[in-house]
Structures are given as structure tokens and as C-alpha cells.
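Ticket #4471: structure export looks truncated?
Reporter: QA, pipeline team
Priority: medium

Steps to reproduce: submit the single chain below to the structure queue and open the exported record.
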Amino acid sequence: MVGIAPAPGQKVHAFLWRGGVLRDLGTLPGGDGFSWAYGVNGSDQAVGLATVAGGQTDHRNRAVLFENGVAVDLNTRVVNLPASVSLYSANAISDSGVIVGNGCVLPCNPFGFTGNAFMLVPL
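Actual output as written to the record:
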């Protein structure tokens, strides 16, 4: 099971719950300390979103993969992702590593229910 839990400094972090143990999944390096987890697979790879410090309000959320103790911005993992596109939330991950989520063409408002679905397939 995944979700969010309180973290120091009035923040929330993504967590993974396995075998009675709550594990903090952290947030993006250099981020502003917030993260959420929405999906997990059988290999304990989790996906969700994390926020980055500063930047435009419509471009602070990043779709992330939580793997091996590290949060990875999925925008940095996509080959040839146009600069005008932002992947802002990863919602589910299959056991084979396929990730689905939401993105948008900038400027966008991820809280305004605009955007497009995406599917990332590992090579």
C-alpha cells in the first residue's frame, strides 16, 4: 500500500507500507519537501508526484518513480520529451514497469482538471 504521511517541517512525504513497516519514500533532490505516492507494483517500485522549489505555479509538480530509495523525476527519463510538455503525476505502475499518469502542454494547471494521459513503457 502507498500514500502520504506527515514529515518534519509541516510537509507530507510519499510512503510505502509493507509487512507492518511504514517506509518514507522521500522527495526529489532539491525539491521543496512534498511528495505523494499513488501506485506500487510487486517489486516495490512506487509512482506519484513530488513538487520542486520555485518555478511557475503550473509547473511545480513532477511525475516521479520511487525506486531503491530514490525519487526520480520522470520528465528526465523520457527520450525526446518536448520542453513544452510536463509530466505532472504518475498514477499507476505495472509489474513490468509500465507507468500511466497525467501530463500537459505548458502553461497548464494540473489542479484545473486539464491535461492529457500518458503511458511510459520501459525499453
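Status: closed, not a bug. The export was complete when the record was re-opened. Leaving a note from the reviewer for reference: Residues 2-120 form one domain.
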